[in-house]
């Protein structure tokens, strides 16, 4: 992924919409102390889904919304748009069967908004989405909140002195295995849920089996009772026939 353009409005010291283009080569932002250089890096971190206000050098998330200056009133919302171009090389088979690698560029625009009311939204290519979708999009690209694309002041020292598990996360992201690990975890969770469902179904089968045996016993009893009742009725018929004959003889 390549950073192409950044649009910032109402975010930190950027009251008006500002656009930064990152052309090929190196782009450097220079300016006097406090002019907003680090705010640009904060804007990138923020749009990629940063959840910690502290990492954005604030006390709470609301602090990222432009809160006014002598000349300007505070804005109602903060918005950052990030244009990325994804370059993937695809194999294209030519008619003479010669394999040819062709670079395919796809542009992606990620937007994050935060309103003073507390509402917030994420958009990918103008369509509302969840933070998870942004994470999925960026996984293994080296971008994203816990990645290594943004090396701010003190970050190198932080990486070197971080816990081995945190360092491993960074290396795995660079190696491009994070996505597969996340998918494996999701698959394992699904399997676990299916296992629990199976156990529940086993319990239900056991319960139903118990009821079935009880019903089977009752059915056998009912059949026997019906048989005995029929037999009784037959004997009663014989008896009544005999009585009627005796009575007929007596008349
Ligand atoms: P340095 O060279 O000292 O690192 P810098 O160029 O990185 O400075 P930043 O830290 O990016 O400067 O910007 C700091 C400025 O941003 C401060 O003047 C601060 O008042 C302003 N600022 C931060 N948050 C807001 C906000 N929510 N609303 C308005 N201004 C803000
Ligand atoms: Mg700075």
Describe the protein's architecture and organization:
With 251 residues, the protein is α+β, with helices and mostly antiparallel strands. The chain has helices spanning 37-47, 131-138, 155-160, 164-175, 178-250; strands at residues 2-9, 18-21, 77-93, 99-115, 120-124, 127-129. It contains five helices and six strands, in the order E-E-H-E-E-E-E-H-H-H-H. The longest helix is centred in the C-terminal third of the chain and has 73 residues, at 178-250. Bound molecules: adenosine-5'-triphosphate (ATP) and magnesium ion.
Q: In a nutshell, what does this entry contain?
A:
The chain is an alpha+beta fold and 251 residues long. It has helices spanning 37-47, 131-138, 155-160, 164-175, 178-250, and strands at 2-9, 18-21, 77-93, 99-115, 120-124, 127-129. 44% of the residues lie in helices and 22% in strands.
């Amino acid at each position: 992924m390549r950073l192409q353009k950044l649009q910032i409005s109402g975010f930190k010291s950027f009251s008006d919409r500002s656009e930064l283009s990152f052309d090929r080569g190196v782009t450097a932002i220079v300016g006097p102390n406090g002019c907003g250089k680090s705010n640009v890096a904060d804007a990138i971190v923020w749009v990629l889904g940063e959840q910690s206000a502290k990492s954005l050098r604030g006390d709470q998330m609301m602090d990222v919304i432009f809160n006014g200056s002598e000349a300007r009133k505070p804005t109602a919302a903060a918005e950052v748009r990030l244009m990325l171009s994804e370059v993937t090389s695809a194999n294209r088979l030519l008619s003479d069967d010669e394999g040819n690698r062709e670079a395919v560029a796809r542009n992606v625009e990620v937007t994050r908004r935060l309103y003073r009311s507390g509402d917030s939204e994420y958009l990918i290519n103008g369509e509302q989405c969840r933070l998870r979708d942004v994470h999925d999009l960026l996984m293994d690209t080296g971008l994203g909140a816990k990645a290594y694309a943004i090396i701010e002041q003190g970050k190198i020292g932080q990486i070197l002195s971080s816990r081995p598990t945190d360092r491993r996360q960074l290396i795995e992201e660079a190696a491009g295995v994070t996505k597969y690990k996340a998918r494996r975890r999701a698959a394992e969770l699904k399997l676990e849920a299916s296992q629990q469902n199976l156990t529940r179904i086993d319990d239900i089968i056991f319960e139903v089996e118990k009821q079935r045996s009880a019903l089977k016993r009752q059915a056998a009893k009912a059949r026997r009772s019906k048989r005995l009742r029929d037999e009784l009725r037959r004997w009663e018929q014989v008896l009544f026939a005999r009585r009627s004959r005796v009575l007929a003889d007596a008349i």
